[in-house]
Amino acid sequence: MSITGIKGMNDILPGDIETWQFLEEQARKIFKAYGFSEIRVPVVEKTELFCRSIGETTDIVEKEMYTFEDKSGNSLTLRPEGTAPVMRSFIQNKLYSQDPVAKLFYTGPMFRYERPQKGRYRQFHQIGVEAIGVEDPKIDAQVLAMLAHYFEAVGIEDVALQINSLGCPECRPGYRNALLDYLKSKLDALCADCRRRYESNPLRVLDCKVPACKEATGQAPSVLQHLCGSCDDQFSAVQRHLKDLQIDFSVNDRMVRGLDYYTKTAFEMVTGSLGAQNAVAAGGRYDGLIRDLGGPALPGIGFAMGVERLVLMLGEKRVQPPRPELFLAAMGEEAAQLAFVLMSRLQRQGMQAEMDYEGKSLKSQLRRAGKFNARQVLILGENELARQVAVLRDMDGGTQEELPLADIELILLQRRDGA
Ligand code: HAM
């Protein structure tokens, strides 16, 4: 029996990869304009890094990590997200020593042992950014403006930005207590997971998708009513800056994130078109994380987009594979040799050219050119060779012309540059 891949981990095949490359190229281009540099960190880290940053009582750490022992008995984990590894690298490499402000982006696979379904996979890919070292809420608005700009640039329209504030270590405990008070009388109505969360991580109850839990928490107190003065000011300023930048958003005071490192601003880019997996991008501030991981007390904010979800959302607008510019159809040994050398010369100059290597009939070669969807076919037979010409057929217009063989390379290249 042949060996198959792992459930929830997908191949990205030719025909699909063009859309992925487009999404990555746009990210590189746009993030560069906002001053972000790329960083690449390993896909495996010490397990402790994720326990300490994402939080011991989150679903990710409790149930979803691919954790294993290496041959020396160290506990390692395939990264479930990118923020913690990037902060680990930022601290370890003392990236703050020159300038405490760092703007970084990354792309790559992440791993979570979740139940696979449309838009949710066990190996998935993120494009993420982290802006470190700026307290001012202008950076929150900048990061959100960049996110909105990205969606606009790649042509994804059916998305809405939701923001919230999750408070800080000053005001969160007060809110937590108010929520516990409220939930106490509703415990019987909650699902088993939420009864557990009530003890360990009560804010997560607000995020539960089970209808009974949603109903039971309908009247829960709002985190926004419990913000301290400084978090309240910060949240108002973020909204003011977003309005100045003309970024559409709504406030969703029930949005809590699945990672414990967040403080203050939290946000999600949501869509109605992906069923249950409605977040295409998500992020927030993590002002205590770098210090908690042993680094300097620097704030940070960032987001990650799920590339599979972006690809799904692009739907009809997916990028088509490139069409070969030229297919060379040759008949006879001598013509085939000439075509082969010409093809190689054109390829060296960047022209996407193809030919048939197996000396098939003209009809079969033209069929192959059609299959490749080539723009033009250059026909070289014994007859043409004798007259020192080649026939160039335009596959879209259906027209053809004879061109002098001696200048064929030059003519083809000149026409391409002029096109
Ligand atoms: P997250 O909300 O866990 O945040 O993930 C960000 C995005 O990754 C989600 O909105 C979704 O598009 C995608 N995603 C997550 N899990 C899956 C999955 N199983 N299959 C497919 N796509 C998925 C973070 O990871 C934070 N590190 C984001 C961040 C950066 N916060 C600050 N900086």
What's the structural blueprint in terms of helices and strands?
Layout: H1 17-33, E1 37-38, E2 44-46, H2 47-54, H3 59-64, E3 67-69, E4 75-78, H4 83-92, E5 102-111, E6 123-132, H5 137-154, E7 160-165, H6 172-184, H7 192-200, H8 211-216, H9 229-244, E8 250-251, E9 263-270, E10 279-285, H10 289-292, E11 300-306, H11 307-314, E12 326-330, H12 333-348, E13 353-355, H13 362-372, E14 376-380, H14 382-386, E15 389-394, E16 400-404, H15 408-418
Parallel strand pairs: 1-5, 7-8, 12-13, 12-14
Antiparallel strand pairs: 2-4, 3-4, 5-6, 6-11, 7-9, 9-10, 10-11, 14-15, 15-16
Helix pairs in contact: 1-5, 5-9
The protein binds histidyl-adenosine monophosphate.
Histidyl-adenosine monophosphate (HAM) is lined by residues 81-83, 112, 114, 120-121, 124, 126, 128, 130, 258-259, 279-284, 302-306, 308-309.
Q: Which ligands appear in the coordinates?
A: histidyl-adenosine monophosphate
Q: Return Rg in Å.
A: 28 Å
The assigned structural class equals alpha+beta
CATH class of the largest domain: Alpha Beta
Arithmetic mean pLDDT: 95
- Overall number of structural domains: 2
Largest sheet: spatial strand order:
1-5-6-11-10-9-7-8
Percentage beta strand: 15-25%
CATH architecture verdict of the largest domain: 2-Layer Sandwich
How would you characterize this protein structure?
It is a single chain. The chain contains 15 helices and 16 strands. With 419 residues, the chain is α+β, with helices and mostly antiparallel strands. It has two domains: 17-171 and 227-317, Bira Bifunctional Protein, Domain 2 (BirA Bifunctional Protein, domain 2, 2-Layer Sandwich), CATH 3.30.930.10; 326-412, Anticodon-binding domain (Rossmann fold), CATH 3.40.50.800. The strands form three sheets. Strands 1-5-6-11-10-9-7-8 form an eight-stranded mixed β-sheet. A five-stranded mixed β-sheet has the order 13-12-14-15-16, sandwiched between helices. Strands 2-4-3 form a three-stranded antiparallel β-sheet. Strand 9 and strand 10 form a beta hairpin. The protein is elongated, with a radius of gyration of 28 Å. The two termini are 51 Å apart. The model has no long low-confidence stretch (mean pLDDT 95). It binds histidyl-adenosine monophosphate. Histidyl-adenosine monophosphate binds at residues 81-83, 112, 114, 120-121, 124, 126, 128, 130, 258-259, 279-284, 302-306, 308-309. Residues 81-83, 112, 114, 120-121, 124, 126, 128, 130, 258-259, 279-284, 302-306, 308-309 line the site of histidyl-adenosine monophosphate.
